[in-house]
Amino acid sequence: MKTLVNIFQFYKEGFQSMTIGKKLWLIIGIKLIVMFAILKLFFFRNFLSEHFNTSEQKSEYVIDQLTKVK
Amino acid sequence: MEHIDFSLVDWSRAQFALTAMYHWLFVPLTLGLSFIVAIMESLYVKTGNEEWKRITKFWMTLFGINFAIGVATGIILEFEFGTNWSNYSWFVGDIFGAPLAIEGIMAFFLESTFIAVMFFGWNKVSKKFHLLSSWLVAIGSNLSALWILVANGWMQFPAGMQFNPDTARNEMIDFWSVLFSPVAINKFLHTVTSGYVLSAIFVIGVSAWYLLKKKEINLAKRSMVVAATFGLISSIYLISTGDGSAKAVAKYQPMKLAAMEGLYYGSDHAPLIAVGALKNCEDTLQVHRQSFIFEVPIYGALSYLAFGNFDEFVPGIHDLVHGNPEHGIISYQEKIEKGKIAIDALAEYKTLKKIGDTQNAAIALKTFEDNFQYFGYGYYFGRDPHELIPPVRMSFYAFHIMVGLGTYFVLFFILILFFTLKKQVVDKKWLLRLAVWTIPLAYVASEAGWIVAEVGRQPWVIQDLLPSIAAVSQIDSSSVMITFFLFLAIFTTLLIAEIRIMLSQIKKGPESSPSKQ
Fold first, then answer.
1. Which burial class, exposed, middle or buried, applies to B17 when counting CB atoms under 10 A from its CB (0-12, 13-18, 19+)?
2. Out of B71, B91, B505, whose CB is closest to A62?
3. Count of CB atoms situated within 10 Å of the CB of B123
4. B111: in domain
5. Which of B1, B167, B340 is nearest residue A59 as measured by Cβ atoms?
6. Which of B16-20, B285-289, B383-387, B429-433 has the lowest mean pLDDT?
7. How far is Cα B97 from Cα B103, in angstroms, rounded to an integer?
8. Structurally, how many domains does chain B consist of?
9. Is residue B345 part of a domain?
10. Mean pLDDT over all residues of chain A?
11. pLDDT in tens, B403-461
12. Any CB–CB contact under 8 A between B350 and chain A?
């Protein structure tokens, strides 16, 4: 328990003593929100998972795509 | 695949290229600066000199800025795999799973854990433990790169796998063949070393700026000695790994080598073009014997570079497209026909298996397996085989820019080291200005290297097995176009943020010096 408290204190004091780091964490936070809450959610859905439920269906579809050469 | 939407293929490729190139603006500095910081801290721990601690903390701050801005930009590439390149993602799934999972674990445990000690641990943990953390961050960053580059190496030279025709996925059968494939190993060593060279140039350039401004003289001179030594060793090793990469390309991707050198017709004693300007041979898709407006050839050097023998035959684009029986090279047309047989056999196998005709399914499977190595060529059935030639001029110029700048960097490090050790570097204003302007050149060389690697292997997403026209998802090209510009805006904002924060921090300089110069 004491170790966990020490680790928590270590991070707490580290974050509190940051200068430029605060600005960087803000950038990281905004970036991650944009990436996961906007881009991934609205623009980058997994094509196969969105259209098919099972691995078998995905396999069928991909084989169908890969063998349709005219 | 019935109707290929080239606008979809092109936008998907453009988006991936844009994301990868922006991502690569951040990565190499992380790879190399982490080691330079660890070396500087080692000097601090060894000498006990507080000035080395101040120097270490300054470069560590710049490392932190680059790390923070660049972190997770690579994840977008994985988003694109699932959305724009779903056929490809499914096709390779099992191969990439292990390396990328290991990368995630390593990145998380090594980088995330020890980077906190690196930044928050001064005066809280022992000097030695802090130093260990700095080294582990450097090693962790580079090991992360290893797994990504192993995955990329597999795309350049698929090894250690077996295609499962029932699932349409490649399955890993030999992890060590994937990890230690000659392409993957050379790619890893060459790529991370290029990051070391770039980082050394970055440290020297920033230090040179301080010397020009007559600020932080001691920090600048000490940093230059460390960076120039690290850079010189790295740049010499870079040449060695480049030689290894060239030999791997000659063996596994001969078309890429021919494009890199603008070699349209193969020859014994093949020349390396030291300097040259290519004619525009691509528009007509014709193969010309006279492909250069002017060139300075070094005869035999390409044969040596490719095969370690000045007299060896190096196949040109014409030999690879049309075949060269004398040298045992089969034509692309023949490969296309074999590829088409493989594709048809796979379709037949699936149909026969569905209706329960196991005997004929086994025959179809055998036909498929016999021709699988040419599978990707089948997508060019009924098309012009010249479409399988990568953009020659882009590959040629990118390669020559990379090699030319790489050679310049060796001389640059020697000059910096010489004048710094002679204690004359402060007076050499021309060299200091050159050092500042060499920073963008390092990025140009680094990006050019990726252009050679990726453009030179077009049209393959997976060498010989899957071209980009078969790898894309059937989605609307306008959605890819929109996200292309969205990424352009996001990454440009991040880049501007990085440059502004970095410049502001450099202008601000390190903590006040214990002994003013």
1. middle
2. B91
3. 7
4. yes
5. B167
6. B285-289
7. 10
8. 1
9. no
10. 86
11. 999 999 999 999 999 999 999 999 999 999 999 999 999 999 999 999 999 999 999 99
12. yes
Contact B83 A46 (CB under 8 A): yes
Give dist(CA B328, CA B323) in Å, integer: 8
Strand partners, B295: B276
Domain that holds residue B140: 22-180+465-500
Q: Do B1 and A69 touch (CB under 8 A)?
A: yes
**Per-residue pLDDT tens digits for B467-517:** 999 999 988 888 899 989 988 998 899 889 888 999 999 999 887 755 443
**Residue (of B248, B240, B207) closest to B224 by Cα position:** B207
More confident position, B244 or A9: B244
Query: Tokens at residue B353, please?
Result: 């298996």
Residue B114 belongs to some domain of the structure: yes
Contacts 24+ apart (CB under 8 A), B326-334: B327/B266, B331/B385, B332/B377, B332/B380, B332/B385, B332/B388, B333/B385
Q: Do B178 and B172 touch, CB atoms closer than 8 A? A: yes
A50 CA: distance to closest CA in chain B (Å): 10
Cα-based angle B98, B246, B262 (whole degrees, multiple of 5)? 120
Q: Which two tokens stand for residue A30?
A: 């905004």
Could you tell me the two tokens for B109? 């445990």
d(CA A23, CA B121): 20
Q: Kindly report the pTM of this predicted structure.
A: 0.92
Cα gap B176→B159, rounded to integer Å: 10
pLDDT in tens, B176-195: 999 899 999 999 999 999 99
DSSP-derived 3-state class of residue B316: coil
Nearest CA-CA partner of B13 in B517, B469, B329: B469
- Is residue B109 in some structural domain? yes
Q: Check pLDDT > 80 for residue B352.
A: yes
CB atoms inside a 10 Å sphere around CB B183: 25
Nearest CA in chain A to B481: A43
Cα–Cα distance measured from residue B74 to residue B111, given in angstroms and rounded to the nearest whole number: 15
Look at residues A57, A58, A69 and name the one whose alpha carbon lies nearest to residue B91: A58
Angle between helices B127-156 and B182-212 (to 10 degrees): 130
Report the pLDDT value the prediction gives residue B290, as an integer from 0 to 100. 62
Q: Residues 231-270, chain B: which have Cβ within 8 Å of A?
A: none
- What confidence tier does B4 reach under pLDDT thresholds 50, 70, 90? low
Helix residue ranges, H only, B48-169:
50-70, 75-84, 86-106, 113-120, 127-156
Find, in chain A, the residue whose alpha carbon is nearest to that of B120: A14
- Measured in degrees and rounded to the nearest 5, phi and psi for residue B105 equal -65, -45
Q: Are B145 and B26 in contact (CB under 8 A)?
A: no
Q: Give Cα B408 to chain centroid, integer Å.
A: 20
CB A66 within 8 A of CB B164: no
| Residue B379 structure tokens | 């997508």
